[in-house]
């Protein structure tokens, strides 16, 4: 593994403040959550129905809180404007 690349966030994360890195993580989680909403059990037929429901429930738990997402998005938006 490249020593220039952090475990979370890639090479660019090394130059970011913890607040920016956290905002990027939050927005990334929201993007993944939104994309996962289009996935159906039929896409993973090998997984039993009960386990699939547990996967969906866990997805809901991993989604960022709306307030946290808006705060993170606002931070990144302000950085883009500057």
Compute the gyration radius: what is it? 16 Å
Main sheet makeup: none
On the 0-100 scale, what is the average pLDDT? Answer: 85
Instruction: Give the number of helices.
Output: 3
SSE-based structural type: mainly alpha
Instruction: Give the strand content.
Output: under 5%
Number of domains: 1
Instruction: Give the strand tally.
Output: 0
Helix content: 55-70%
Gross morphology: elongated
Q: Give, in order, the helices and strands.
A: HHH
User: How many angstroms separate the termini?
Assistant: 33 Å
Q: Spans of 5+ residues with little confidence (pLDDT < 50)?
A: 1-7
Please provide a written account of the structure.
This protein has 82 residues and is an all-alpha fold. The protein has one domain (17-81). The chain is built from 3 helices and no strands. The protein has helices at residues 18-36, 49-62, 66-81. Helix 1 packs across helix 3. The chain starts with 17 loop residues before the first helix and ends with a helix.
């Amino acid at each position: 593994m490249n020593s220039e690349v952090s475990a979370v966030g890639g090479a660019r994360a090394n130059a970011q403040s913890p607040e920016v890195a956290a905002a990027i993580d939050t927005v990334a989680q929201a993007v993944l959550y939104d994309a996962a909403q289009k996935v159906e059990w039929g896409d993973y037929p090998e997984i039993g129905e009960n386990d699939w429901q547990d996967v969906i429930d866990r997805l809901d738990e991993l989604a960022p809180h709306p307030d946290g997402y808006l705060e993170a998005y606002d931070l990144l938006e302000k950085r883009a404007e500057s």
